Automatic annotation (TrEMBL):
It is found in: Cell membrane; Membrane. It holds the Pfam family ABC2_membrane. It is a multi-pass membrane protein. This is Transport permease protein.
Length: 268
């Protein structure tokens, strides 16, 4: 009798109740975000500062090779990716904090889906990053960003940004689960924030030295930036969109598998 009573809720929680459990846990995690909106402001501070500096200080001296478009139109896709890279650092931070506080052990004693704990942090990251992107878009429009993109193109941009956020969020889960210190949990995002600077985000790759140009043209940010820029400019995306999707899906799948293995090892 005792064994049946204990195992039945666990089976229910890991199966039929997965979505409801995840929703409840996501609500709990979102409360931390809404109660500390300074997190959103901190996330968007760096991208907005970069927009101001590059547009009003360096923009006049940078030749992007495009006619009729302003520099803010050219560099906004890279700023959006930097915004996401800044935001996922807080996912690793929140996950690390929960792990160190013992809340994971408390959740394990409840009849809930265990993977729902990680998915709650991932969904919270999506919501928080969407809010940050909206703020950055608003500032960009104030600074002069304009696009004649169709509704379908906007949906395409939104899909790319959401997939990029999802991939980097699951990547952030890994240091969130394995870091020894809170600084180590969020430090992984620094290379991600720096990566757009060695891509086509701010200047054409043709202007770079050969070795740097090769790296810039074969790293994921360039294809993602080029795809978003083409959609905004109502131009053909070409092969960039397929390369971008391959990169993002590859990172997402690998990061998800590694995260789940580490998580199950942690709670076993």
């Amino acid at each position: 009798m005792t064994t049946a009573t204990v195992t039945a809720p666990a089976a229910t929680g890991s199966g039929a109740r997965f979505f409801s459990d995840t929703a409840v846990l996501t609500g709990r995690s979102l409360k931390h975000v809404t109660r500390s909106l300074d997190t959103i402001l901190t996330t968007v501070a760096t991208p907005i500062a970069l927009m101001l500096i590059f547009v009003y200080v360096f923009g006049g001296a940078i030749n992007t090779g495009t006619e009729g478009g302003s520099y803010i139109d050219y560099m906004l896709p890279g700023i959006l990716l930097i915004t996401i890279a800044s935001g996922v650092a807080y996912t690793a931070f929140r996950l690390f904090t929960d792990l160190q506080s013992g809340i994971f052990e408390r959740f394990q004693s409840l009849p809930i889906a265990r993977s729902g704990v990680l998915w709650a942090h991932v969904l919270t990251s999506l919501v928080a990053n969407i809010l940050s992107l909206v703020v950055v878009f608003a500032v960009a429009f104030i600074m002069g960003f304009r696009t004649g993109a169709s509704v379908a193109a906007w949906f395409g941009v939104a899909g790319i940004l959401l997939l990029f956020t999802l991939a980097l969020t699951w990547l952030a889960v890994i240091p969130g689960l394995t870091a020894k210190t809170v600084d180590g949990a969020s430090a992984f995002s620094y290379p991600l924030i720096f990566l757009p600077f060695i891509s086509s985000a701010f200047v054409p790759t043709e202007t770079m030295p050969p070795l740097v140009q090769w790296f810039a043209e074969h790293q994921p940010v360039t294809s993602i930036v080029n795809s978003i820029r083409a959609l905004f400019a109502q131009q053909p995306v070409g092969s960039d969109i397929w390369i971008a999707l391959a990169w993002m899906l590859g990172i997402l799948i690998v990061a998800y598998i590694v995260s789940m293995r580490i998580y199950h090892r942690k709670i076993s």
